[in-house]
Amino acid sequence: MKSDTAEVQSNRMLLVKETCKVKGLLKLKKKPQLFVPIKKIEETEVNWFEASAICRTMNGSLASIENERIMEAIDQHLAPEKPADPWWWLSGNDLASEGNFVWANTGQPMNYTLWSTGQPNHFKDNEHCVNLWVSGGLFTMNDLDCKRHNFFICERDY
Ligand SMILES: [Ca+2]
Fold first, then answer.
1. Domains of the chain: which residue ranges?
2. 10, 29, 40, 134: most buried, per Cβ within 10 A?
3. Which residues form the C-type lectin domain (predicted)?
4. Mean pLDDT of the chain
5. Rounded distance from Cα 86 to ligand 1 centre (Å)
């Protein structure tokens, strides 16, 4: 972990520093690597836009899960959280074009997906942002109201 985060005083960046100590995700060799705010303090539950902005302040972006390998790593990493069924924002969204989900940080279509059964359902015609939640014992994807407050997963290059 680079020392630059050690200089940062804010709680949010402290979260990054702490999570960088967590093994597993950091063993992923392909960039970008992922980090998650695992310490559940109030301010880490934010809407999708706020989450995106916070990730940007960390020189990163909301995470994109572009293949099964990353999905499995995240599922394994977050396994201890499963009983609480936390919801985590990803960068996926169809804000620009209903039903056409893209990863915000790359602009690429979500070719790899792990939707929960029956999702995405565009509930109440108001679900445009992608979150992870627990379904069937696994973290799976769902489309959700972007203004809901969730935890979030960022990614950045190291
Ligand atoms: Ca949904």
1. 48-155
2. 134
3. 47-155
4. 76
5. 15
Does position 26 have pLDDT exceeding 80, yes or no?
A: no
CA 143–ligand 1 middle distance (angstroms): 4
Distance 95 CA to ligand 1 centre (A): 14
DSSP codes of every residue in 47-115 = -HHHHHHHHHHTT-EE----SHHHHHHHHHHTGGGGGG---EEEEEE-SSSTT--EETTT--B--S--B
More confident residue, 156 or 42: 156
Distance 56 CA to ligand 1 centre (A): 25
Q: Which amino acid is at 157?
A: D
CATH, range 48-155: 3.10.100.10
Strand bridging mode 88-93 / 138-144: unpaired
Whole-number Å distance, alpha carbon 135 to ligand 1 midpoint, is: 12
**Distance separating alpha carbons of residues 26 and 121, to the nearest angstrom:** 33
pLDDT single digits (tens) 143-157: 999 999 988 888 776
Distance 141 CA to ligand 1 centre (A): 9
